[in-house]
Design brief:
single chain; 312 residues; alpha/beta; Rossmann fold; 14-stranded mixed beta sheet; globular; binds 1-O-phosphono-alpha-D-ribofuranose
Length: 312
């Protein structure tokens, strides 16, 4: 640990750096693209304006933050790694150090179930989570075990900002995608790449052979599986107006975070075919630019470009 932390409830250093991302007020913009892969984050930074210095920080806990301007608008690109917990760290820590409304777009990869093919783009209008039900796997002799346990739990659906989704779609269409290559529908965010995504692993009892059937019976319009989007949509939907409390401005809705996601289909989970590295490179180039364009188009109710100590 590099820094002395002051308060264990929401840990920050004396200069206001958050514990896991290590950024402080002024180092993250109100408009953010979040990706899993840190090399994808670095690759996107080549599109930032050349006349503004780019802030770069790699934290000890695996977060990469780049902040600069894109066509004159401050934006951050944040690599968070993988999974629901990393998304939770990222959103809560960023929310605590940025004043004003946030717009966050996740640009990631996913597996598809059903119609979307490898190389297509998904813009999920909503997401639900699938988590392993640990109790199901406890010993039969365990007296605390109940008989009606199911191996996997499904949450309700939480939704994206519909305007932000439309902007992403519009920009993808402008950047070489055909409308047949773009899918909406629901995304399943799973707590494992393996068990809760229905992969067979001979080394564990996973009871997941029926998981695709259960997904389509529960949410028939599910198109994708990945590991982060649910937490983004869930936290955006439950974000409060507290960060805006010093302002006289009134938000048009009750959340301080606007969120959307778009994912490149890397895997077809029905055939288990995997995308080629050349196709990934191509998709990142054309879809990444579209996401940046969608982000700067986004109206925010309140931003604070005059933030003290801003890096941009
Ligand atoms: C698994 O390989 C990772 O890829 C997907 C999943 O959600 C998971 O994080 O997304 P990213 O490409 O954004 O990391």
């Amino acid at each position: 640990m590099k820094f002395q932390i002051l308060n264990a409830n929401f840990p920050k250093t004396d200069e206001g750096r958050v514990y896991h991302m290590e950024v402080k007020r002024g180092e993250v913009a109100n408009r953010i693209i979040t990706v899993g892969d840190s090399s994808r984050a670095k690759m996107f930074s080549k599109w930032l304006d050349k006349d503004t210095p780019v802030f770069y920080l790699e934290s000890q806990r695996g977060f990469t933050t780049l902040t600069g301007k894109y066509h004159g608008v401050p934006i951050s690109i944040v690599g968070i790694g993988m999974g629901i917990s990393m998304m939770d760290f990222f959103i809560r820590e960023v929310r605590s150090i940025v004043d004003g409304q946030l717009a966050i777009i996740r640009f990631g990869s996913c597996g598809s179930i059903g119609t979307p093919n490898i190389g297509n783009m998904i813009i999920p209008s909503g997401a639900f989570a699938i988590t392993r039900n640990y109790n199901y796997f406890s010993d039969d002799e365990d007296e605390t075990r109940t008989n009606d346990e199911k191996p996997y739990n499904f949450t309700n659906v939480f939704y994206a900002d519909p305007v932000l989704c439309k902007q992403i779609e519009k920009q993808l269409l402008k950047n070489s995608f055909d409308e047949k290559e773009i899918f909406t529908g629901l995304n399943a965010t799973c707590d494992s790449f393996y068990s809760s995504q229905g992969r067979y692993d001979e080394n564990f009892r996973d009871s997941n052979t029926d998981i695709f059937k259960t997904i389509t019976a529960t949410y028939p319009n599910t198109v994708s599986l990945e590991m982060e989007t649910f937490m983004l949509y869930h936290l955006a939907s439950t974000s409060t107006l507290a960060p805006l409390k010093h302002s006289n401005k009134v938000l048009d809705k009750g959340n301080s975070i606007k969120a959307a996601a778009t994912m490149m289909v890397f895997v077809d989970r029905f055939s288990n075919e995997f995308i080629s590295p050349e196709n990934v490179q191509y998709l990142q180039e054309i879809a990444g630019k579209a996401v940046l364009d969608a982000l700067i188009e986004t109206e925010l109710s309140e931003v604070h470009p005059e933030n003290e100590g801003c890096v941009w």
